[in-house]
Amino acid sequence: MCMVLWASDCHPQYKLVLAANRDEYYNRPTLAADYWPDHPRILAGKDMKHGGTWMGITTTGRFATLTNYRDPSNYNPDALSRGHLVQRYLENDLSPESYLKNLLNGTKEYNGFNLLAGTCDNLFYFSNREKLVRKIEKGFHGLSNSLIDVPWPKVTRGIKALETCLQSREVNAECLFELMADRNQPPDHELPQTGVSLELERLLAPAFVEMQGYGTRSTTVILVDHSNYVQFRERSYKPGQPNTWTEVYYDFKAECSGK
Predict the structure, then answer these.
(1) pLDDT mean across residues, the chain
(2) pLDDT tens sequence across 25-54
(3) Is 6 helix (H, G, I), strand (E, B) or coil?
(4) Which residues contact 88 (CB under 8 A, 6 or more apart)?
(5) For the chain, which residues make up each domain, given as ranges?
């Protein structure tokens, strides 16, 4: 994932409204979101290179997603796959806070990451660059490849667009897909400085990334209402043809455990 935007308890109908883009190399093999045969309560895409996932939700209301923390000077090509952090949470029964606290001193073998993990009623955040477990408060939030709510241009612009989408009584999934497809190019003076070249910062700056061999592979929209009814939509884009996609849709009533 390269950008996740969400609203916690900001709409009269939905306790969670979330939209996320996964940016990845086009040649990395991936399965679209589906229920996992070996863990049928898990609904998630799958990274076929290492077996983990970037985002998923369970029929018991457990949710997690992950973004990379951009830090090229400390990148380790032999690090463990971060997608297993999401996978293990979804397979687990620990509370999100307990799961993340267990990571406080055990993530040196991973490159930088941001991890959101929650249940039907609580959402927590942890980054192995910040090393602090935070409970997510009510409001609009955004996360890209820095820490939570750091005002990168696409995060700030995306949150404003999300607020607009939620002004309607009925949340339109197309509005969410449209804001995640934003190609707006911020001016150079607003770009973050993450240790990559200015040319690369420009290419990575829009919400929807399009590069040679790399870009936005999928967009996921999740709506959870106050009765824990979940709607999950995911669009997977054809490499080099961002206006061509396949879409999957799932809905279910989460059987929340209360953890």
Answers:
(1) 96
(2) 999 999 999 999 999 999 999 999 999 999
(3) strand
(4) none
(5) 3-252
**162/194 Cα distance (integer angstroms):** 25
Question: Taking the CB of residue 143, how many other CB atoms lie within 10 A of it?
Answer: 26
Q: How far is CA 80 from CA 32, 68, 138, 176, 221, in A?
A: 22, 13, 33, 32, 27
Q: Which two tokens stand for residue 1?
A: 């994932």
d(CA 40, CA 34): 9
This model's pTM is above 0.70: yes
In CATH, the architecture of 3-252 is: 4-Layer Sandwich (3.60)
Place of tokens 């939570």: 148
Q: What pLDDT score was predicted for residue 169?
A: 87
Would the pLDDT of 259 be above 70? no
**First-to-final CA distance of the chain:** 26
Q: What is the dihedral of CA 172, 176, 177, 182, to 10 degrees?
A: 140
Tell me which residue of 9, 97, 88 sits closest to 44, measured CA to CA.
Answer: 88
| In 38-158, beta strands by DSSP E | 39-47, 55-58, 63-68, 113-118, 123-127, 134-135, 139-143
The answer on pLDDT for 258 being more than 70 is: no
